[in-house]
């Protein structure tokens, strides 16, 4: 029993690693085109996306009869540069555009690229980090596989709209806000113009909690040595979570 579980984990890991390496290539190519379009300094823009930071998550959103009251993931923005979503044919993903929530209709064999907070900063707000959420389906479970990629470790983001910061600064601030305020404030914390900010009002990003099950989380795809030190594969099942290092 344990052996077949371990085989399954190993096999899943190999598949997801390969999947992640293809997505890394795609995301880098798309980012390269966007950076060129934005006339970013090529040397600097190379540090704004790093395949070594990429990770893959697999979600299961349980079917829920109270469709209108239940959210798989509440409204949030991703902290990434780019997020690439691969969703099954069960609808649920919604994005906010001009104050309207739009359904992202599943199209077979299609990937969805979401722009994250880092992309917004890098582009001087020309591109917006998309607000999105996931609605639970009345009849079916929904599965998605998501790839997220970030700037290189220590790379300083220079933007006319924000003060210089690294992704680690951003992440630390998000963690602190979630702990103290209960939600992610996000990029507003790094706005260039110093002003008194009150984050207890409306419009803040949430930290994306909701009723979803993170069934597989493969961290830092390309750093096997870190996996051995506590990275690896985390399986979450209802009320339990397993942590297996392969
Ligand atoms: O499952 C999805 O389609 C979206 C997941 C998502 O928004 C996230 O993990 O940040
Ligand atoms: Fe997201």
Automatic annotation (TrEMBL):
It comes from the Eukaryota. It holds the Pfam family 2OG-FeII_Oxy. The keyword DNA-binding does not apply. Residues 52-151 form the Fe2OG dioxygenase domain. One of its GO terms (molecular function) is oxidoreductase activity. Keywords: Iron, Metal-binding, Oxidoreductase. InterPro entries: IPNS-like_FE2OG_OXY (IPR044861), IPNS-like_sf (IPR027443), Iron_ascorbate_oxido_reductase (IPR050231), Oxoglu/Fe-dep_dioxygenase_dom (IPR005123). The keyword Metal-binding applies. Belongs to the iron/ascorbate-dependent oxidoreductase family. This is GIBBERELLIN 2-BETA-DIOXYGENASE 3-LIKE ISOFORM X1. It comes from Salix purpurea.
